[in-house]
């Protein structure tokens, strides 16, 4: 089995984290994989397409979404994590709840992906401290039903400085809870309490987060700022499942920026884009590549 340390080791290309949302209402793929069987089958497809990691979530974080009960979230994710982990997949649980993180680790999750970075339920950090797992701490300000109220970044340095400082504070909290920071990955949280211009500013300045000294995960796939960018002449955003080419461009930029991971729905096109970046990074002018 891959060790936790090896999951964090530098690699020639970003790890590809395939998304399985076991929710009725996620904006990107909500309602498609609500039964454990459908979700497991989807996870297997993503692995066959070349996913390095599978991220399984049972709570929609779509703007305006209300939260499921803990029991509902557990029932959605635990059987899927258990099945895919048993088949050897490196599984991540996308949860903000300590109880769900603990249950997920008990059935084989290796990564706790907490979109609140420990703010929603600080006990998540105790669960992570007690286990040998990777912790993804994302930039977050409020639950989805209120997050648009918090999308203002008027301080010096704007959104980039705010996300850097707020992620730095989360890293302090993670350390204070006894988690070895070498197990931590940070995420700028595209689309979470952020308007379009905030997401673009963050993507343009990922290197500003280097001072935090931790690898980065980026999730742009299918998000509404891409839909807005690609809006038709009538102003209607491009539909969710027609934003892939734009995400491929983001993939390329992030790979060049040296991120640790990319959280995506279409693993195959992400791997294709990464293959191009890798080919370009190899020694140029090789006879067989002509
Ligand atoms: N985005 C979503 C859910 N979980 N986790 C991390 N670490 N980063 C993200 O950007 C992120 C996430 C929302 O997107 P979805 O509804 O397509 O899953």
Shape: globular
**Domains counted in the coordinates: how many?**
1
Low-confidence stretches: none
- Sheet of most strands: 8 strands, parallel
Question: Which strand order do you get reading across the main beta sheet?
Answer: 6-5-4-3-2-1-8-7
Instruction: Give me the oligomer status.
Output: single chain
Strand content: 5-15%
Which structural class do you get from the secondary structure elements? alpha/beta
Count of DSSP strands: 8
Here the CATH topology equals TIM Barrel
CA-atom Rg in angstroms: 18 Å
User: What CATH architecture label applies?
Assistant: Alpha-Beta Barrel
- The SSE order reads HEHEHEHEHEHEHEHHEH
Distance between the amino and carboxyl termini: 38 Å
**What share of the residues lie within helices?**
25-40%
Q: Overall mean pLDDT score?
A: 94
Full CATH superfamily name: Dihydropteroate synthase-like
Tally of alpha and pi helices: 10
Distinct ligands, ions and cofactors found in the model: pterin-6-yl-methyl-monophosphate
The CATH class assignment is Alpha Beta
Structural commentary:
With 290 residues, the protein is of the alpha/beta class. The chain has one domain (11-282): TIM Barrel, CATH 3.20.20.20. Helix content is 39%, strand content 12%. It contains ten helices and eight strands. It has helices at residues 4-8, 36-48, 70-86, 98-106, 123-129, 158-176, 196-204, 224-229, 244-257, 267-281; strands spanning 15-21, 53-57, 91-94, 111-114, 134-138, 184-187, 217-218, 261-264. An eight-stranded parallel β-sheet has the order 6-5-4-3-2-1-8-7. Helix 2 (36-48) links the parallel strand 1 (15-21) and strand 2 (53-57). Helix 4 (98-106) packs parallel to helix 5 (123-129) and helix 9 (244-257) packs parallel to helix 10. The N and C termini lie far apart (38 Å). The relative contact order is 0.13. The mean pLDDT is 94. Bound molecules: pterin-6-yl-methyl-monophosphate. Residues 19, 21, 26-28, 61-62, 94, 113, 115, 136, 138, 187, 189-190, 217, 219, 222, 263 line the site of pterin-6-yl-methyl-monophosphate.
